[in-house]
Specification:
Length: 310
Amino acid sequence: MTTKRQFSHRVITLLAAACAVMASASGYAGGGTINSWGPSAPLERADGSQVPGGCPIESAAGKFLFVAKNPTGSNIDIYVNSRTSLDAPFEGDDILAPVISDPGANDFCPTPLRDGLLYFVSTRTLEAPDAACGGADIYWSVNNPATGYDEPTHLACHPHGPNTPGAEFSPSVIESLWGTFLFYSSDYLTGNQDIYVSTLRADGTFGPGHRLGYPINTEYDDKQPNVSPDGREIVFASNRPGANGVDSAFDIYTANRRVQFFPWTEVVNLSETVPFDSEPADESRPSFSWDGTRMVYGSGGVWLSERRRR
């Protein structure tokens, strides 16, 4: 006779196996030990200069690097660096079309997905009845090969959707057997940045966000999450106290979990365990490559860390 405990163990084993199959099918090479990252170094262009900007993230195929910057000292806009192959350096960047990089607003935290889908954050104003929620809100658009990016769609305001009167940062979308989920950070409820997750509903819209618990969120700023395609690994920036108990600059933290909807493991400060050359400056918006072998982040320019081979 099968006991409840045996049945539960079998379910957990099957779910873990399903996650492993999904990760393998997607080509994701992560999910190893949370201390598996190597030393970081400036991400260089073909001319030897460091790629400028912040909020860096690679496209799914790795041939494009999206960043946010304000070279004129005015509004922040979204730029794209390109390269011919994964082994080639990035060339110069191009600003995205005005429909994305609004001349009258700050546009940042770009998140490219497959099939030309782009999520990003903007402080633009909208006409009623579709007025923005306030602060910085999350939008999405699709890049049509023939006509370029569509007019961005604004995600609904709280309590109907994830946007709030506060400031939202760094949308990170994953698709899985259990649905499609949007991770992001917001300062709406607590006054400091916390990490939330929103679920895609049957009508194709994202619902209100649910705040993640400890150890991901603390009473400090925990922001700019990026979650691996298999949903089992997360990186984010936080100014929680370091190992010495003293308030720190923004460092990069990571955690993982065996199955997507299981609790996260204890959070590890990568900035204390990995030789990040950008220390002691603030580090922001870490993000995985689609295959999990690379991580980029911002700190006075774009930096790169590669996963150690196991």
